Amino acid sequence: MSILDSKIPKGPLEDKWSNYKNNINLVNPANKRNIDVIVIGTGLAGGSAAATLAELGYNVKTFCYQDSPRRAHSIAAQGGINASKNYQGDGDSNFRLFYDTVKGGDYRSREGNVYRLAEVSGNIIDQCVAQGVPFAREYGGMLDNRSFGGVLVSRTFYAKGQTGQQLLLGAYSAMNRQINRGKIQAFNRHEMMDVVLVDGKARGIIARDMLTGAIERHSAHAVVLASGGYGNVFYLSTNAMGSNVMAAWRAHRRGAFFANPCYTQIHPTCIPVSGDHQSKLTLMSESLRNDGRIWVPKTKEDAEAIRAGNKKPTDLVEDERDYYLERRYPAFGNLVPRDVASRAAKERCDAGFGVNKTGEAVYLDFASAIERYGKEEAFTAGHKNPSKEEIIKLGKDVVESKYGNLFQMYEKIVDQNPYKTPMMIYPAVHYTMGGLWVDYNLQTTIPGCYATGEANFSDHGANRLGASALMQGLADGYFVLPYTIGDYLAQDISTGKIPTDTSEFDAAEKEVSDKINRLMNAGGQHSVDFYHKKLGKIMWNKCGMSRNAVDLKEAINEIAELREDFWKNVKIPGSADTKNAELEKAGRVADFLELGELFAKDALHREESCGGHFREEHQTPDGEALRDDENFKYAAAWEYTGKPSDAILHKEELIFENIELKTRSYK
């Protein structure tokens, strides 16, 4: 075990980033033309990084498995993006955003990285407005804000319920400009299969053309991994079905440490599971918790009657409803952080108060908001005694203007009108705070290999606040990586092109081909999805919303056995030298079968509860997370040794000089 150096600059918190930029090495414009950078993933983190690096003059190659960068999973983000501009005049500041983020992550993130994130957040909004992102605006023409869980201010900028899509279009347009200039070579429908190291440095990748099956070599002076998170290790999640861990895991196998894999976010506001044959889950934006009130029946008899179809939620009057978040957390109410809201929903459902047929759902109700907005609109229009029908119509119009596409999506999936009947929601896997360990420069433990956005671990600690994923992805891509990678590339101005006809590329390509052949020749009897679903059930049941030592030890053994069976008995039809969706899935599931084991090992080793990692043995008398700052105030970074459960632990001690460590309270 070693102690990792995060390379956080010395000096006062608010001066660290400025002082760092003032003292780094730079690459002059003429030399940038001679340096190549590979970017894996073209979502918000990768797209913004690729566009900015190309604008600076570097030669960039981008790789994505989608047919267009516009299909990156970033497009699915609905609710908004945080920035501490204080447009509302409600007391927001860089320090408050920094504080809320560290507290929301249950004091398991770095002060230096998080403050830098808060510091550049305002620049992101300016950049995106300049690109034409249609953020919502309030009556006076200023950009509008709403609030998200875990904060007491309104700092979330949004574009109705399509924020991720609109931001991605901005990054994509910036990319297209560079593609048109010839500064970006875009390799769509390509999947990264391995990182190539030359003299210990990342100098390229092996990729597979997903249309022809051809294995290709691509070299560069640095490789940036912006390939997203690993939530699909649970099979059912809110992630796009293609989202995977391959790029990050292949880098991990080459020497990049993997940090805090057990830190996974369960989002409280998802459409509940509907059956055994479901392949993904749908997120209802956290922004809905601004106006929606979460409740279950006060009595089990009413809950049972609703589950049996003998009662409707609208049959229950106010006194018969338990608004349990408002009851338990009066200061934050329905806007507690995601981990807190998720566990509270699980507790109510486990106690027998769930409201769908499986008993695993709670209500998200907009009746109060519709009435409140309707009265306000009527009063503003001069109607002092409006009818109930007029109030409901006016209120519905306001709610529709704020959340209309989300309501439409819910009705399409569930076949219920959420304006009239409360939505049903239940927690589901959404985001992963763990990822490749990176230092302050966003560099992994492999020199020249960088990780940005959800692919790294650096900013969110044990729980991510809502609307901070888009903030981190764009901060890394637009305003952090372009500085930090230049400091590293300054040593390569005389290196010249990296050749691909070397023994290192030969060996890496052979390993990739051998693995593909092994998968194709397994000749078993079970599909890839058969194994993925089995893994998902192990992960959800034993490494999900709550964990304990007995289950985690069982999970480690069960995953190892499942992985062994996978390599013997998986069946992949077709051939490797053409488009083969089953082969693509097989490579990804093979990596999930290793990651899952490391995930369980990490969760077992962390004998505390913090954020999204809830160990049943470590909780307060009223069921809240119980941290152990004396023994676990560090990031756990794991070194690959061949078998995930034998991974070697390295620690990065977390130092808090500006924030007092204390038990989180949202009451």
TrEMBL record:
GO terms for biological process: anaerobic respiration. It is an enzyme of class 1 (oxidoreductase). The active site is at residue 338. Pfam families: FAD_binding_2, Succ_DH_flav_C. Its EC number is 1.3.5.1. It is a peripheral membrane protein. InterPro entries: FAD-dep_OxRdtase_2_FAD-bd (IPR003953), FAD/NAD-bd_sf (IPR036188), Fum_R/Succ_DH_flav-like_C_sf (IPR037099), Fum_Rdtase/Succ_DH_flav-like_C (IPR015939), SdhA/FrdA/AprA (IPR030664), Succ_DH/Fum_Rdt_flav_su (IPR011280), Succ_DH/fumarate_Rdtase_cat_sf (IPR027477). It comes from the Bacteria. GO terms for molecular function: electron transfer activity; flavin adenine dinucleotide binding; succinate dehydrogenase (quinone) activity. Keywords: Cell membrane, Electron transport, FAD, Flavoprotein, Membrane, Oxidoreductase, Transport. It catalyses: a quinone + succinate = fumarate + a quinol. Residues 532-666 form the Fumarate reductase/succinate dehydrogenase flavoprotein-like C-terminal domain. Residues 36-470 form the FAD-dependent oxidoreductase 2 FAD-binding domain. The keyword Electron transport applies. Its cofactor is FAD. It is found in: Cell membrane. One of its GO terms (cellular component) is plasma membrane. NCBIfam families: PRK07573.1 (NF005749), sdhA_Bsu (TIGR01811). PANTHER family: SUCCINATE DEHYDROGENASE 2 FLAVOPROTEIN SUBUNIT, SUCCINATE DEHYDROGENASE FLAVOPROTEIN SUBUNIT. Belongs to the FAD-dependent oxidoreductase 2 family. FRD/SDH subfamily. This is succinate dehydrogenase. It comes from Gillisia hiemivivida.
